[in-house]
Amino acid sequence: xxxLDRAKQILLAGFCINLCIGILFAYSVFKxxxxxxxxxxxxxxxxxxxxxxxxxxxALLLAGIIQDKFGPRRVLIAGTILSGLGLIASGFATTPDHxxxxxxxxxxxxxxxSYACLAPAAMKWFHPSKRGLVNGLIAAGFGxxxxxxxPLMTRLIDANGVGYTFIVLGAALLLIAVPLACTINNPPxxxxxxxxxxxxxxxxxxxAEINWRGMLKTKQFYMIWLMYLAASSTGLMIIGNIxxxxxxxxxxxxxxxxxxxxxxxxxxxxxxxxxxxxxxxxIRTLALSFxxxxxxxxxxxxxxxxxxxxxxxxxxxxxxxxxPAVFPSLTAAFYGLKNYGxxxxxxxxxxxxxxxxxxxxxxxSMDHYLNFDFAYHVSAVIMLVALFxxxxxxxxxxxxxxxxxxxxxxxxxxxxxxx
Length: 419
Fold this sequence. Notes:
Elements: H1 3-21, H2 27-36, H3 42-70, H4 73-90, H5 96-125, H6 131-160, H7 162-181, E1 206-210, H8 212-215, H9 219-239, H10 242-250, H11 256-280, H12 282-299, H13 305-335, H14 340-369, H15 373-392, H16 398-402, E2 411-415
Antiparallel strand pairs: 1-2
Helix pairs in contact: 1-5, 1-6, 1-7, 2-3, 2-6, 3-5, 3-14, 4-5, 4-7, 5-6, 6-7, 6-11, 6-13, 9-13, 9-14, 9-15, 10-13, 11-12, 11-13, 12-13, 12-15, 13-14, 14-15
């Protein structure tokens, strides 16, 4: 089997696994049903989603540490199994606390373990010049899941209820994602990816392979962490509440198609941002997405009717899609691939914190003001902070990388192409 064919298979398998575990992207359909059908409050219906995001980020960190030592396959298999069982258990949940445990902790943890392994494995099979594109394609599967899950979930809920829908999705995940997880692995030792026919082959400088301790000694880490926190809190606020926003602001009782629109534009944003970051750099790509999201948040209170909701969903999707495409490749570019799993797990804790900020702001706004205007305004301010940070964030040069710490455990020099 040709190495290039194997690399493409890894990329395709990772994309398909993300299609299966991307249920977080369509949770707003569940949330709306929990509020309207079961009588839960917005805060009660949002908490399992918030918990899942927090647990997701913790699980991603743990999975990153484990896969850096033992490879991705075992972690992926465990994660996909836990995800499926958590969804099935959610089908039997009767209270918010039960759903927090089954969906928030079990399914959220399983999804985090699964997601953590896909981008690192895929990036190691491809040339560094394709990191942005590879990350964008892998992440696209997670965003694209909402395209088919939102209408599917809506039909299943209307016909058989929320519990049945959880069980069906969990069983399908076990049947599809677990076998795919068995096909994912790292390239063999000494593997050097080719640049490809359309890329000029250049001698790559030695890249500092920095572990998490050394990473924490750089100011760039804290800037990346804060930008990720701010931008993802805004994106998750919209993603987790888009159907509720449409019902409250545009009197749309059936808004599952907005989840599809959001997912489609999120997916296109992931791929486009990955390609753009390969050309102009990750920081500049992030700054452009921040400007777009700020404008969208300022305009969101004025979106009326279905066309307004469609526009707001599309812009939010593109902006949020930039994040999972750019931040992984940015982490690899700054700190190397050898310790990427652990390093990105540490960076990703910001996403977990944002999962508390965004949805909680939205629930507070709705429960206290009966609209989402407060959440929009707070999100715009948060995004302004992210934009400012992007202006002052500079790449980590190799000289600085070699001088991060006196402790040799923090920095290890290795040819970038061998990682």
